[in-house]
């Protein structure tokens, strides 16, 4: 069991998560759990900041899953571009305004 507390201002929220594993070395288990949540949190942050995922319209049934899949696909395509000078947000804007760049992102075509 891992218990985590999140404090924002004066509000606090405690959550317990349970894990099943055959590992017995607690520091290694803790490292795996932390690394999993670090990836999860960083992806959520990028999706929220770049795609405004938390502000998006709430969808029902398959639409929610389909939108999440398309958003994560777009994020992966944008991250796959080798534009180290541009943030993901700037790549998204560039792809929306530049047909050649958008084709490079979608099809991996190099000009």
TrEMBL record:
InterPro entries: ISAs1_transpos, Transposase_11, Transposase_11-like
The Transposase IS4-like domain, residue ranges: 17-77
A UniProt-annotated Pfam family: DDE_Tnp_1
Highest taxon of the lineage: Bacteria
Gene Ontology process terms (BP): DNA transposition
GO molecular function ontology, one term from the record: transposase activity
NCBIfam families on file: transpos_ISAs1
PANTHER family according to UniProt: H REPEAT-ASSOCIATED PREDICTED TRANSPOSASE, PROTEIN YBFL-RELATED
Protein name per UniProt: Transposase IS4-like domain-containing protein
Organism: Psychrobacter pasteurii
